[in-house]
Amino acid sequence: MNIYFAPLEGITGYIYRNAYSDIICRDRGKELISKFFSPFISPGVNQRLSRKELRDILPENNRGIRLIPQLLGCRGEDILLGIEDIKALGYTEVNLNLGCPSGTVVAKKKGAGLLAYTDALDEFLYKIYEKADIKVSVKTRIGKNSPEEFFEILDIYNKYPMEELIIHPRIQTDFYKNKPDMEMFQYAVSHSKNRLCYNGDITSAEEYSQIIEKYGNGENYDSLGKNENKKSCDCEGGDKSFTDAVMIGRGFLKNPMLIHKISGYIENGKNKNEGEGAYGNSYINDNVSTETQDIDTIKEFHGRLLEEYKKEMSGERPVLFKMKELWAYMGDMFPGSGKLLKKLRKAVSLKEYKMLAEEIINTGYTKSINSERLPCSKTSLDT
Ligand SMILES: Cc1cc2nc3c(=O)[nH]c(=O)nc-3n(C[C@H](O)[C@H](O)[C@H](O)COP(=O)(O)O)c2cc1C
User: Fold this and answer.
1) Pairing between strand 196-199 and 70-71?
2) Could you tell me which residues come within 8 angstroms of residue 257 by beta carbon, excluding any fewer than 6 positions away?
């Protein structure tokens, strides 16, 4: 099963990706994360991508990681121009964003907004798949206003030879509320002609294991569509598609070390620690030395991000903004640090910020030694 790092605009730019790959993955970036997806680039009408737009995906900014650039648009012609520029950098695969729920994007019939206009969606994909000489995958929601829209949308997707179809089974108006619609994902498993990737609300190894145990039957698939080892699927549509990848976004932001829990699950099999959930819901392993090591890694990761953002941005405010945004997720790792987190959100200087961030991490560390475990937040998949 492949693990992908989801694109998160404003957060998972190249600085975050490099720090994640170097420090969290301990230089095993490519091995642990099969693909990182870039936050979307939105080409202008009839325009080539500027150096500024390309900066995040420049190969020199993404050494040692497998990056898939993502494009957002509603005109096939503009996407094709974007693809030319991306190809010129040496990339062989791009991803199309048909899931962004943001009001300004949707108003332009882009992202999840295009899902409501099925003729336009079909024409858009036709133009791209007719001409693009590069692998093209799609990342989609299941509809704009209602999950039932997905029946027609999937019929359209089935006309095109996608590298893979990544499904975040929510509708646009959900934004990030409600639960992923697993019935609709099952419908895709039964009816998609394209290889699938599941995305949405995975924040623990246990949730990951639930998904792969239910849907993961596509090991050793190759891009020509042959898969000698593919297990038969017990779904109603027969043996058409399967899920051989899972994409995780906020789960990695909340707990960067989650990748090790998941890779431990993959490497050691699901029976370890059975009865408690494959690897439990806790962030930290049971022995203290692992906890110490994990907290040290988080400390190093945080320090690297802070230093790199300071180098890249001018003035304290944008750096503070960037780091505080991160804590909106990472704060979940330190559930007992509510007061410190509140102070951190109000910090007005980097000096104050740094002091508080270090205190949160160190206090979390002390607590983890005392309590042995740090609970990870629960999500919809827990229920
Ligand atoms: C702050 C933020 C920024 C995002 N930016 C993008 C983006 O640029 N492109 C995209 O396809 N999805 C984007 N997403 C959606 C995520 O990639 C992902 O589909 C979604 O968060 C569900 O997965 P998760 O529950 O694992 O986070 C964004 C989500 C958030 C919360």
Assistant:
1) unpaired
2) 24, 283, 294, 297, 298
Q: State which of 3, 4, 5, 9 you would mutate to test the pocket of ligand 1, scoring each by most atoms of that ligand within 8 A of its C-beta.
A: 9
Pocket, ligand 1, Cβ cutoff 6 A? 6-11, 39-40, 70, 97, 99-100, 139, 168, 199-202, 248-251
Helices (H), 238-349: 250-254, 258-268, 288-312, 316-330, 338-346
Separation of alpha carbons 301 and 87, rounded Å: 31
pLDDT, tens digit, 9 for 90 and up, residues 152-172: 999 999 999 999 999 999 999
Check whether domain 2-268 has CATH 3.40.50.150, yes or no: no
Q: Compute, in angstroms, the gap from residue 7 CA to the centroid of ligand 1.
A: 6
- Domain extents for the chain? 2-268, 288-371
Q: How many CB atoms lie within 10 A of CB 348?
A: 10
> pLDDT tens across 254-303, in order?
999 999 999 887 666 553 433 333 323 333 333 334 567 888 999 999 99
Q: DSSP assignment, residue 22?
A: I
